[in-house]
Predict the structure of Rab GDP dissociation inhibitor.
Amino acid sequence: MEEMYDVIVLGTGLKECVLSGIMSVNGKKVLHIDRNDYYGGETASITPLEELYRRFKVNGPPEPMGRGREWNVDLVPKFLMANGQLVKMLLYTEVTRYIDFKVVDGSYVYKAGKIHKVPCTEEEALASDLMGIFEKRRFRKFLLFVVNFNEQCAKTQYDIDPTKTTMRELYRRFDLGPEVMAFTGHALALYRTDDYLDLPCLETINRIKLYCESLAKYSKSPYLYPLYGLGELPQGFARLSALFGGIYMLNKPVDEILMEDGQVVGVKSEGEIAHCKQLICDPSYVPDQVKKTGRVIRAICILSHPIRDTNECTSCQIIIPQTQVNRKSDIYVCMVSCSHCVASDGKYVAIISTTVETEDPEKEIQPALELLEPVDQKFVSINDQFIPKHDGTKNQIFISRSYDATTHFETTCDDIKDMFKRMTGATLDFSDMWSSDNSDFQE
């Protein structure tokens, strides 16, 4: 193994595999090592079902649960925005040749103890009980403003300076009340907290535009989900890397990261040394170079029924805005099923996630658990969140951030692009890479 590589990657989480694939495509010599015997790291899909029970030290599974190999259960719940950054990365790198996707059936928001469908069409908006009749008209006017907004065209900006006007002021401009503000900020712009209200409105406008553009692709919802689970994504990028010469080693321990004069020079494993110029890794490989920023609780729930009040959806997202449950951050529910090849026939997998705020995390997710009852089996994990202490430019060790509680990949892609820029000095720009012929994505 004593060879020189441009990049050594430790861990096979999605971020690490995407960067490995992109580096390989760009002609870099890449070695990818993971101490685990499976792909995906934090973003793995666990199969068979018996392995999930072993992982969480739960007795079972009870019968009947179908064949264990029919299950592919995600550890981190995420959907892809149909017009989002990760889809553009998949299309640009042609990783879509390895993965099939389905459109998620619906998106819902929690209000006053009930869940309501996030309107997908003008007809749904008019019929929705999320808003009163007058607010619907004002909200429609607001959405038309957002959809037509162009940062380069002053005529579309209603005399608003998007770099100075706060989002709170913009809502006030359209006379939108607190309920509509909560629904828009959390179910459309997908913010976890209300901190965005007092920041310049440009980012929020772009987030809502992304939601609307993604929704326009397929009309049912703005989200996509890969058949056989999210673990297919890192494996797809791993195949891409291998196609361009990347070398993968699973079940390979990392004994030491070798340094000289304050810079990484290689990795030692089982007595062998591989040299490198740069190193990419997840926080677990360099605990002394990351700091804890909080915790996330995730609860994997196996159900024998669709979630009530979702029109028998086989897949959906539910957002519980923080203000509805007296919290500082939102609670998310992602649900998929046998129709996505992740569960046995007639079974559903719903995953709850949120940022931990108290000393009793399970109590914090109780409002979401009540929406899922009855639950056949529950698996709870509480994970620390880490960010790197440095940007990697001095020691050439580039560390990814932990996966947050959001149920989309936009923050994941922001981290990938940030790491790429720090490594290469170049911008990873997928803004013009969307193809209008999306034969790789199915209804």
